[in-house]
């Protein structure tokens, strides 16, 4: 089967899956899957850029996604003026001192030598650290003391949340630049371990720095880019329209909101997909693939492999950041404890590999298919377990255990799918051309 | 100034826990480094292998306890350890047969094997959750303390107490035995030497008639033992929870890389470097400082460099510094 037939055919299957879900489980669940599928597709597009184009092994996707979520909060939440007055400037100057210390230390490391360098570095780092803590800690305490039950953080800029999406990309790109500088150019395993670490640290920071993200108290009630359901239900025009379509106003409003989100996400996905296709077929894309397939040869042709890797690493991470901001917008809240590496890093990898690494449409397809499976495995697993245990006595230990354990079927299924695809169809559903 | 009390406080809160944690990391990192040396990939399923081994040991422990078997003052889990190791060994050999062998025969790139190990990680994680659930499980029994803080205070008359948990002592002793046995095996036995030869230069090893499949099998057996021991020791000392074991992957990898991937001595050194930096940087030094400094200088805060929640950040920072300045690790990596 040629690609021209395969691609539309597979996407038609995805449409069937979602429509089928709509008919069997209701349109609300179908649209929920569609919206998260769109976001997953964007994440998998970002990873495909890194892995499929350049062969970079990044397993810190969760961190970049979380940074995107943070960006959405920092853009959209109203600023807490009281907290800013109490210690905002102090926190910022503390951070500036910290940054200045690091930059100064790097400068000293580059431009000095011998014992003077060691001495100056030590003085700079130790002195800078204590100065940073002295300024920063007091500011943090002041900010977190401001009405901790409902705010206790600096808040955001109070801008429309959509501005947070590109900002999420920018913040993720900044983090990617730092980590790429340190770990690119070394063996591929080291980049993997370094990204795994940075992701954990990002989550740790979001859990513990209450002044920034309210930590485990979560930020809730993020402003939305689409109207609230209750407002729609109160709007007589909307209710009349819903009645014309023969829909209950409550159902109509939930569907309308989800469709609106879906339309916004689809626009972002189409733009990014178009850009990724352009990049793939440009001279730059060909150079990337040449580097991926043979670094030594590419270097011999005068390509700066490390710089190109850094470039594509930043771009891919930025896309994950955008997706993260979109996801937080959809959820309407930032809950740092909900970021799990198995869900946000490794699942995206399954999407890329199953969909077909190196093929943008494949990555998007993988995003939809795997997300659909991820959602559906649980009910299917439960049904399966009920079937298996049908003959067993009610209340028996094994029956109860098996039914409870059905919730963990997801990981098993995803692992099995990943291994099967890697073994029998390593190029994925839609192989790279 | 009260030097003795300061020393005891330091031992109680930094040295003893650091030693135990370091030993656990070291055994974990030894497993990672062995796989890297022989099979030449970073095994991301190692944390979950540890979880699997611990789970098998816990099940065996429960079985023994229900028959009334106990190990006197020591935890029953030590008796159950061989069963856990056997189960893990079977599981790893099975995984190798079904999954990894195919890619070895294909001479797949290391990064493909890493992705494959990710899939294995998913499955193992799922199996562990499936069988034992996600709850926090404590399975240490027997005496809790060799010496409790109160006994120590009564014995010595000092104001500070020094508590040594049985599990901490067991960890250090078992780690010592395991490491000694491993090094004896690698340096003195024929199979161990063939493993080192294989790790050093695969082609040369094949030429001299070493059977690669045998070397790989033995490696998995040793890794099963190491992973189970590390997991059980960690679980005895703290508690068992599937997700915590997955998170241990980061400090374990940091230990292996800091010491030099593929170098067993480095893995041990790296384990202790990471453990002690985590403990010292996240420890509130006020208690020690109070005894050492004159009263006017006594600190008001906790004198804690970083909050304990950032212990991952510490292992990570050390990892990055080592990668930047000495990418082969402190002890020179690459061969067994």
Chart the SSEs and their pairings:
The complex is a heterodimer of chains A (433) and B (336).
Chain A: H1 3-25, H2 27-53, H3 61-76, H4 81-111, H5 114-145, H6 164-183, H7 188-208, H8 210-213, H9 229-234, H10 236-244, H11 249-280, H12 283-293, H13 295-300, H14 305-331, H15 341-355, H16 360-388, H17 397-405, H18 409-424
Helix pairs in contact in A: 1-2, 1-16, 2-11, 2-14, 2-15, 2-16, 3-6, 3-7, 3-14, 4-5, 6-14, 15-16, 15-18, 16-18
Chain B: H1 3-39, H2 46-66, H3 77-106, H4 110-132, E1 145-147, H5 149-156, E2 164-165, H6 166-188, H7 190-200, H8 202-207, H9 212-237, H10 242-247, H11 249-259, H12 264-282, H13 286-292, H14 311-325
Antiparallel strand pairs in B: 1-2
Characterise this structure.
- The complex is a heterodimer of chains A (433) and B (336).
- Chain A is an all-alpha fold and 433 residues long.
- Chain A has a domain at 26-79 and 155-339.
- Chain A is 77% helix and 0% strand.
- In chain A, helix 3 (61-76) packs across helix 14.
- Chain A is globular.
- The mean pLDDT of chain A is 90.
- Chain B has helices spanning 3-39, 46-66, 77-106, 110-132, 149-156, 166-188, 190-200, 202-207, 212-237, 242-247, 249-259, 264-282, 286-292, 311-325; strands spanning 145-147, 164-165.
- Chain B is built from 14 helices and 2 strands.
- Chain B starts with a helix and ends in an 11-residue tail after the last helix.
- In chain B, helix 6 packs across helix 7 and helix 6 runs antiparallel to helix 9 (212-237).
- The longest helix of chain B has 37 residues, at 3-39.
- Chain B has 336 residues and is mainly alpha-helical.
- A two-stranded antiparallel ribbon of chain B has the order 1-2.
- The chains are: A mainly alpha (433), B mainly alpha (336).
- At the A-B interface, helix 7, helix 15 and helix 18 of A face helix 4, helix 11 and helix 14 of B.
């Amino acid at each position: 089967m040629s690609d021209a037939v395969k691609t539309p055919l597979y996407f038609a299957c995805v449409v069937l899956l979602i429509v089928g879900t709509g008919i069997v489980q209701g349109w609300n669940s179908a649209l929920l899957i569609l919206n998260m599928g769109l976001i997953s597709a964007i994440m998998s597009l970002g990873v495909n850029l890194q892995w499929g184009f350049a062969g970079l092994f990044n397993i810190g996707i969760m961190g970049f996604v979380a940074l995107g979520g943070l960006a959405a909060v920092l853009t959209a939440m109203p600023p807490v003026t009281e907290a800013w007055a109490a210690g905002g400037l102090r926190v910022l100057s503390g951070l500036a001192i910290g940054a200045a210390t690091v930059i100064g230390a790097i400068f000293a490391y580059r431009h000095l030598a011998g014992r003077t360098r060691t001495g100056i570095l030590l003085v700079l780092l130790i002195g800078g650290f204590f100065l940073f803590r002295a300024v920063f800690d007091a500011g943090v305490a002041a900010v977190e003391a401001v009405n901790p039950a409902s705010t206790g953080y600096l808040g955001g800029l109070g801008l429309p949340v959509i501005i947070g999406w590109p900002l999420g990309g920018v913040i993720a790109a900044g983090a990617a630049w730092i980590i790429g500088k340190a770990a690119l150019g070394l063996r591929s395993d080291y980049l993997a371990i370094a990204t795994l670490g940075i992701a954990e640290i990002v989550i740790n920071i979001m859990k513990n720095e209450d002044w920034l993200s309210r930590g485990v108290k979560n930020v809730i009630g993020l402003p939305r880019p689409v109207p609230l359901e209750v407002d729609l239900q109160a709007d007589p025009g909307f209710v009349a329209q819903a009645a014309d379509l023969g829909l209950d106003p409550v159902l109509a409003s939930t569907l309308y909101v989800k469709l609106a989100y879906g339309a916004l996400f689809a626009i972002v996905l189409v733009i990014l997909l178009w850009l990724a296709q352009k990049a793939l077929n440009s001279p730059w894309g060909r150079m990337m693939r040449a580097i991926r397939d043979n670094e030594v040869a590419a270097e011999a042709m005068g390509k700066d492999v490390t710089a190109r890797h850094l470039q594509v690493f930043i771009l891919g991470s930025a896309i994950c950041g955008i997706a993260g901001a979109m996801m937080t917008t959809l959820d309407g809240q930032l809950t740092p404890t909900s970021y799990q590496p198995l869900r946000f890093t490794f699942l995206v990898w399954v999407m890329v590999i199953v969909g077909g690494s190196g093929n943008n449409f494949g990555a998007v397809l993988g995003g939809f298919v795997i997300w659909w499976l991820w959602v559906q495995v649980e009910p299917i697993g439960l049904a399966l377990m009920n079937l298996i245990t049908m003959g067993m006595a009610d209340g028996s230990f094994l029956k109860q255990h098996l039914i409870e354990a059905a919730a963990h079927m997801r990981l098993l299924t995803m692992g099995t799918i990943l291994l099967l695809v890697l073994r029998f169809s390593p190029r994925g559903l839609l192989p790279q051309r | 100034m009260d030097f003795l009390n300061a020393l005891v406080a330091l031992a109680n809160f930094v040295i003893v826990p650091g030693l135990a944690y370091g030993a656990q990391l070291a055994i974990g990192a030894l497993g990672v480094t062995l796989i890297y040396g022989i099979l030449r990939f970073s095994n991301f399923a190692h944390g979950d292998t540890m979880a699997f081994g611990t789970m098998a040991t816990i099940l065996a422990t429960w079985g023994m306890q229900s028959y009334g078997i106990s190990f006197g003052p020591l935890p029953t889990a030590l008796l159950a350890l061989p069963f856990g190791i056997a189960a893990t060994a079977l599981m790893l050999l099975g995984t190798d047969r079904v999954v990894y062998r195919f890619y070895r025969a294909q001479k797949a790139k290391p990064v493909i094997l890493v992705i494959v190990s990710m899939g294995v990680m998913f499955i193992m994680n799922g199996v562990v959750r499936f069988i034992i659930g996600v709850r926090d499980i404590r399975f240490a029994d027997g005496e809790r303390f060799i010496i409790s803080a109160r006994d120590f205070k009564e014995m010595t008359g000092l104001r500070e107490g020094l508590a040594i948990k049985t599990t901490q002592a067991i960890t250090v002793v078992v780690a010592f035995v395991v490491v000694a046995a491993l090094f004896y095996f690698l340096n003195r036995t024929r199979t161990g030497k063939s493993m080192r030869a294989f790790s050093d230069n695969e082609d040369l090893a094949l030429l001299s008639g070493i059977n690669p499949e045998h070397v790989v099998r033995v490696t998995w057996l040793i890794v099963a033992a190491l992973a189970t021991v590390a997991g059980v020791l960690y679980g005895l000392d703290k508690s068992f929870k599937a997700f915590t074991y997955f998170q241990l992957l980061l400090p374990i990898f940091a230990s292996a890389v800091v010491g030099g991937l593929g170098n067993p001595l480095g893995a041990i050194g790296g384990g202790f470097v990471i453990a002690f930096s985590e403990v010292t940087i996240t420890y509130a030094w006020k208690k020690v400082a109070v005894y050492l400094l004159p009263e006017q200088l006594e600190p008001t805060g906790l004198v804690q460099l970083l909050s304990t929640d950032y212990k991952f950040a510490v292992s990570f920072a050390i990892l990055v510094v080592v990668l930047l300045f000495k990418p082969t690790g402190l002890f020179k990596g690459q061969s067994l």
